[in-house]
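Lab notebook, bench 4. Continuing the backlog of folding jobs that were queued last week. Each job is logged with the same field layout so the records can be merged later without manual cleanup. Today's entry covers DUF4761 domain-containing protein, a 60-residue chain. Filled in by technician R.K.

JOB TYPE: sequence-to-structure
TARGET: DUF4761 domain-containing protein
LENGTH: 60
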Amino acid sequence: MLVQLNSKTAIYRGFTILKLPRKKPYSRQRYQITKDGNYLGLDFGLSQARQTIDQLHRGH
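JOB STATUS: finished
OUTPUT FIELD FOLLOWS
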């Protein structure tokens, strides 16, 4: 279950998903994944970030 803390931060399965500001050279929205202060990846969609977390949670 995705818990939206505010407009830029969500928690999913104990991982934090942070919506980053759009900056060049990226014109697309970016989502940073962290857990316990450790950077775990960057995705270009919230659904992609959730899929990445599901894979991490399964140990892949």
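OBSERVATION: Residues 2 and 12 are 5 Å apart (CA to CA).
SIGNED: R.K.
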